[in-house]
Amino acid sequence: MTDIRVTCITKPARDSKHDAITHLGGAGWKWTKAQVIASIEAKANTFHTLVNGNRGDIGVVNGATGKYLRTYADGQWNDNLLSLPECP
User: Fold this and answer.
1) pLDDT at position 74
2) What is the C-alpha to C-alpha distance for residues 6 and 15, in angstroms, rounded to an integer?
3) Cα separation values, 83 from 8, 36, 79, Å
4) What pTM value is reported for the model?
5) In what order do the strands lie in the sheet with 76-78?
6) What is the pLDDT of residue 29?
7) What is the mean pLDDT of residues 49-67?
8) Sign of the CA dihedral running 79, 82, 85, 88
9) How confident is the model over 26-49, as a mean pLDDT?
10) Which of 15, 28, 32, 56 could cross-link 73 (Cys pair, CB 3.0–4.6 Å)?
């Protein structure tokens, strides 16, 4: 199992109704949200963010509209993935 650092995200066009993430990326890679969810659920890889020296592990959450990704840091689920810069 590889531990992968996420450094950027892609969100839908501004006219989208939802502030959802469509892709996650890092140094030399960019995957769809579905690919990351499948990889986590299959226990093939783990994903995390590292912001200001603080690690946030990325996990899958079952929401009202389906599965989505959130970070877990300091004992709490949070939405700091949305604060990452846009992937090129």
Assistant:
1) 75
2) 25
3) 9, 18, 8
4) 0.87
5) 2-5, 45-51, 54-63, 66-73, 76-78
6) 96
7) 90
8) positive
9) 96
10) 56
